[in-house]
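Working notes for the structural subgroup meeting. M.R. asked for a predicted model of this chain before we commit to crystallization trials. I am recording the input and output together here so anyone reviewing the notebook later can reproduce the run.

Input as submitted:
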Amino acid sequence: MGLSELSKRMVALKYQDLPPETIEKARVAILNYLSGSLPGADSDLAFAEESIWKAQNCSGNAVVIGHRGSTSPLAAAAINGVMGQVFLQEDCHEHTISHQGVIVIPTALALGQERHVSGEQLIEAVVCGYEVQGRIGKGLIRDGFPKNGLRPASILAPFGAAAAAAKILGLNAEQFQNAITIAANAAGGVMEFSITGTPEICIQNSNGVKNGIIAALLAEQGIQGAPTALEGRFGIGLAFNNVVCDWRALDETDLFEIDDTFIKIYPGCGHVLPTAQGIIDIVKNNQIDPDDVEKVIVGVSVNGATFPGVDNPGPFKGTISAMMSHQFMVSSALTKGEVSIATIRQFADGAINALAPKVQVTVDEEIEGRKIVGARVTVYLKDGRTFTSFQDDTIPQTEAGVIARTYIFGEPFFTEARIDQILAKVKTLPQLADINELMALFVPEK
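Returned structure, recorded in token form:
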């Protein structure tokens, strides 16, 4: 049972075994990753990562999203892994506080290009990566896990990458398990970036992708990992939690973990998205002069109030710290009328930073009692008026929304005709004979 049986199930997994809704979830997740990475393609970090690999004279047919030329699968996966969370447009797995898409998908795409896999094989690998990362995360990520500074998504990243890579490489069950247990040795990542605004969150993604791929390649060569790397006396469970973890999720077969994810509408940490929803609801329905605001109270769960970086009144030191903050969500909406990549880029704006300290984050007893990811946002004006919006869940981005922002994010790189081609390829992804046909479209025209 446990990891051994999960490995066997993943090796045996075929496209034909997947429910239609799971296939659609994977297809939209792939489009969201590709389009959501484009705003990060011209980031300093993406170019820095690319320069490192160029210095190694890497070669291959793998495409770097929004960049010209091609490189080795490992290099492409690493560079593309950097881009996915530059502006936090990724998907979320609430049970594990992690983001499989920005890890699993660049891994499967890069190795898949080298192996000339089909659209069906790509979907198999993506579902497999989400599954392994999600199920290990359910055992490892306990309530309050991030309080000591460890980032759940980065701890889990090597597992998702190793699973996706193992599926693309066609490893057998023993090799697959070895890939996962070898990857356990690369689990790591801290959250100080949530305060400093520095880009380690993206570097951690790239590290997870690289280490997961290398774990799978080592397993392919016959290298073994400790079979008890998860639950053993000196395994990852006890190492990170100091208590014995419950690994029953490894044996569960009730759903595919990708079905339990959602795509973000706003560029922000998952814990602050309901706050963004609430303040946008208030702004849309009321005319509020920021100078008239006395204070704003944001009521959330205990986790929503204590997750690293979410209770940050500024001044904001970078885009990452802004996207982590309840205060930024509120001040961005009240001063600029929106929460968007455009306002995130304005993290140092004087009006935003002047209003942010007026926003107080508290624990809302109803939200905590119902154990929901929600927010109660109340704006208090100096004349005594108040406006309140209660959000009892995170509103997910729709496929139509992902398509719409593909045009927006793609415009600096591609013609509208090219974007139409991209959308058509993703729409018919299961019929695609070779995913290189899709990835070739992500070499910029402009």
